[in-house]
Every structure is written in structure tokens, then in C-alpha cells.
């Protein structure tokens, strides 16, 4: 008696894998082996055994959500410097498909637009700037000196070391002459002395002399020679601080 055995083969469809992308178009896969049932046992067999059956797909596209995208949210700012090399910036944000700001990691970092770049505003112009000459001469008569301010500035008004504008620096002093010192007479004063009282009202003095100034120097003159001029004070009151209560003591008795 001939025994005929029947072997039944079928595709065993596995679970889909996770999507290869967290957003946008990705791929997912699954295992689809050919199985054979024999004597109440299931065995994996060569795929050719299931060739009479339509094979299920083992790969498929997937998309969990629409990817966020980079958006440029502002124009470039002005360059950080008015001349020379500086930087400028703009706002770049990662935005979800519903318009919310999301962390940068949710966008493709390789496609991120630059938000900082260098800018060249051209060479800085450097030049000398100076004030008018001072009205006062250092000498009231005869030869003296008058001065003015001199600065090396860039075109955005930032002071530079003086040598940066070149060697042709404008003079900051010049000779002045208020006329000959022909026996000019006037009062001269010395410094005030210390106040005579440590607290409360005291007095202080200074020397006041009549001098004649000439090209040869100074000569002390009698006070009446300066009588046509207002004589400066030679004494004035002073008050360093208000006096307060203070303990005083005598020597010990025998």
C-alpha cells in the first residue's frame, strides 16, 4: 500500500519594522519566510516552495509626520562696524508643519541656512581732527604758548593711537605774543596759610605784593605803585568744621 504525504506551504507574514525616518518619507521592512507544515510541525523552507503563492511585500514606504523646515524669519542686520570687517546676523528658526517653533534637531541640520556671516564695509578712513586754538596765551605779556586738541579719528569717531594717521600730525601748540612786557605793574598773591582754628571760625593769611614785570624779570615795588588796581585780600575768615563737645583733663594731683 502506497502512502501519499501532503505538504502544505504558506507565507508567514511578520510585523513591519519601525519607519527609518521620524518625519518625511522613509522605509519599513518585514520578514516574509516560506513555511511548511509537516506532521503538526512548522518548518522554514526555501522560498521556491511558495512560488505558486503571491508573495507579500517585504518593504514599504512610510511617513510618520511631515518634517519641520527651516525658515528665515528676519532680514540681515546692519554690519556690526561702520568700516572694516564685521559681522551681520539674521533669525533662522526650525518651524513645524503647523507653524510652531520647534528645536533645531527636528530640522535637517545639513540644510540649515546661515544666520551669521562676515561683512566688509570697506577700509576705515583715518584722519586728523583738531580744535580751534585756545584764546589764552600762557604769558600775559611777551612770548608764550597757546594750545589746541589734536586727535586721530576713524570715520566712525573712535579714537586711535596718534601714530595711526601718519606722520603729518598737526601741531598742538604754537607761539603767542601778548605784546612787550614794558614795566607792567600788578598785584601778585601767595598761597593761603592754614586756618588758625581746628574747628569753628578762624583766620588765614597770604602774602600780597606789588610787582613790576619786565622782559628782565620781576621787581618788588612799593604798594602804592599798585594803588590803581584793586588789592587782593591778604586775610580771610575760615571754618574747617563745627566745634563739638570734647573732654579735657588736668595732670594727676599728688
Write a brief structural summary.
The chain is an all-beta fold and 254 residues long. It has strands at 8-11, 26-29, 34-38, 41-45, 59-62, 69-72, 85-89, 92-95, 116-120, 126-130, 143-147, 150-154, 159-160, 173-177, 184-189, 201-205, 208-214, 217-221, 235-239.
Describe the structure.
The protein has strands at residues 8-11, 26-29, 34-38, 41-45, 59-62, 69-72, 85-89, 92-95, 116-120, 126-130, 143-147, 150-154, 159-160, 173-177, 184-189, 201-205, 208-214, 217-221, 235-239. The chain has 254 residues and is an all-beta fold. A hairpin with a 4-residue loop joins strand 12 (150-154) and strand 13 (159-160).
Key phrases:
three-stranded antiparallel beta sheet; 254 residues; 19 strands
Q: What composes the largest sheet? A: 3 strands, antiparallel
- The average pLDDT value, as a whole number, equals 83
Determine Rg (CA atoms, Å): 50 Å
Multimer state:
single chain
Q: pLDDT under 50 segments (min length 5)?
A: none
Q: Between the first and last Cα atoms, what is the distance in angstroms?
A: 156 Å
Helix count? Answer: 0
H and E string: EEEEEEEEEEEEEEEEEEE
Report the strand count: 19
Which sequence of strands runs across the widest sheet?
A: 1-3-4
> Which of globular, elongated, flat, extended, rod-shaped describes the shape?
elongated
Pfam families: TSP1_ADAMTS
InterPro entries: ADAMTS_ADAMTS-like, TSP1_rpt, TSP1_rpt_sf
Main location: secreted
Protein name: Thrombospondin type-1 domain-containing protein 4
Amino acid at each position: 500500500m502506497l502512502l501519499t504525504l501532503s505538504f502544505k506551504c504558506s507565507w508567514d507574514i511578520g510585523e513591519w519594522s519601525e519607519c527609518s525616518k521620524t518625519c518625511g518619507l522613509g522605509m519599513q521592512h518585514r520578514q516574509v519566510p516560506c513555511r511548511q507544515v509537516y506532521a503538526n510541525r512548522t518548518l522554514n523552507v526555501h522560498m521556491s516552495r511558495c512560488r505558486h503563492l503571491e508573495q507579500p511585500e517585504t518593504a514599504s514606504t512610510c511617513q510618520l509626520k511631515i518634517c519641520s523646515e527651516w525658515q528665515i524669519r528676519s532680514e540681515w542686520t546692519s554690519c556690526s562696524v561702520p568700516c572694516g570687517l564685521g559681522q551681520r546676523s539674521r533669525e533662522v528658526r526650525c518651524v513645524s508643519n503647523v507653524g510652531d517653533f520647534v528645536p533645531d534637531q527636528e530640522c535637517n541640520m545639513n540644510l540649515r541656512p546661515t544666520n551669521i556671516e562676515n561683512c566688509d564695509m570697506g577700509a576705515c578712513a583715518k584722519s586728523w581732527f583738531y580744535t580751534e586754538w585756545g584764546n589764552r596765551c600762557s604769558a600775559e605779556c611777551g612770548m608764550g604758548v597757546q594750545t589746541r586738541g589734536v586727535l586721530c579719528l576713524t570715520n566712525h569717531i573712535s579714537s586711535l593711537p596718534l601714530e595711526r594717521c601718519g606722520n603729518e600730525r598737526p601741531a598742538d601748540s604754537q607761539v603767542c605774543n601778548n605784546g612787550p612786557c614794558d614795566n607792567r605793574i600788578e598785584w601778585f598773591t601767595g598761597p593761603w596759610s592754614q586756618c588758625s582754628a581746628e574747628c569753628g571760625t578762624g583766620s588765614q593769611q597770604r602774602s600780597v605784593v606789588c610787582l613790576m614785570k619786565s622782559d628782565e624779570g620781576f621787581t618788588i615795588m612799593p604798594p602804592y605803585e599798585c594803588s590803581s588796581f584793586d588789592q587782593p585780600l591778604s586775610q580771610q575768615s575760615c571754618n574747617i568744621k563745627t566745634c563739638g563737645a570734647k573732654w579735657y583733663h588736668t595732670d594727676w594731683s599728688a
